């Protein structure tokens, strides 16, 4: 989804995504139950835990990284179980969570409305002014189509993001 603005080489040199500290386990991507049912056939050893989006009550699952840390160092990062060293994500387009396809942009709830936002920390996008023309044009169109098609993970607003554009009031 972001291939036209983020080169693979940029992300390979950054590697900030796809691994998580203990304090960031709430940032791991959420999978729809039907995607998990497909994924379990290929990755039977990956454990998932259930959760729900507070506002919509939509049911999601997250992979469980709690047993993946080898030290007590809070800075230790545990990789996503679908991250293949040197190759990237092992999941195909049908199974990769929408959150992952959209990152470092996010759909967030701010002051009762949905907004498209961008993570300020992403160096690849920061270097191009967060690609706002792309985000407010073709990306917004894709996000609105996804919102129309079914449940999309919505994050609560927090520091570290900046608003790209509004997406209106949706339940
Ligand atoms: S933070 Fe940005 S540049 Fe770095 S790996 Fe993630 S998407 Fe790529
Ligand atoms: S599912 Fe793929 S894109 Fe998402 S965090 Fe894991 S490796 Fe990264």
The succession of helices and strands, N to C, reads: HEHEEEEEHEEHHEE
| Continuous helix count | 5
The average pLDDT score comes to: 92
> How many domains in all?
2
Backbone structural class: alpha+beta
Provide the helix percentage.
Answer: 25-40%
Q: Going across the biggest sheet, name each strand in turn.
A: 9-7-8-10
Description of the structure:
It is globular and about 40 Å long. Helices cover about 25% and strands about 25% of the residues. The strands form 4 sheets. Strands 9-7-8-10 form a 4-stranded mixed beta sheet, with helices on one face. A two-stranded antiparallel ribbon has the order 1-4. It has 5 helices and 10 strands. It folds into 2 domains: about 80 residues, no CATH class; about 70 residues, no CATH class. The model has no long low-confidence stretch (mean pLDDT about 90). The chain is an alpha+beta fold and about 170 residues long. The site of one iron/sulfur cluster (SF4) has 11 residues, from helix 1 and helix 4. The site of one iron/sulfur cluster has 9 residues, from loops.
Which tags fit this structure?
two-stranded antiparallel sheet, 10 strands, alpha+beta, 171 residues, 5 helices, binds iron/sulfur cluster
